[in-house]
Amino acid sequence: QVYVVFSEELKCWCRALVESVWRQADGFQLRCFLVDYAKYCSVPSESIRVLAGVFAKIPHRAKKCRLHCTKPLTLHIDYCENTAKIGPAKRWDTAAIQHFRKLLE
């Protein structure tokens, strides 16, 4: 279900999908995917609203996707052997994500 959350970074209300919820000392925090900005953000539970009527039917501008047959790689360094090899990784590292975003721009 799509909700509306207030993004402090963007300073506006945005449509979002709730990814996860966790409890903090002062209430609940939500991790959300902003469907019109393709960004993730964390918001307090007080900053979420139900999306009303026809606004819920507007298509999302951003979609989650994956690159077909592209697997993350990372540099594995062995200090004992004094070698470095590129090999598979479980997640994309920060440098690879930043490089890909620069290529898109």
From TrEMBL:
It holds the Pfam family TUDOR. Coiled coil: none annotated. GO terms for biological process: germ-line stem cell division. Its EC number is 3.6.4.13. It catalyses: ATP + H2O = ADP + phosphate + H(+). Keywords: ATP-binding, Helicase, Hydrolase, Nucleotide-binding, Repeat. Signal peptide: none annotated. Residues 3-68 form the Tudor domain. GO terms for molecular function: ATP binding; hydrolase activity; RNA helicase activity. InterPro entries: Tudor (IPR002999). This is RNA helicase. It comes from Chaetops frenatus (Rufous rock-jumper). The gene is Tdrd12.
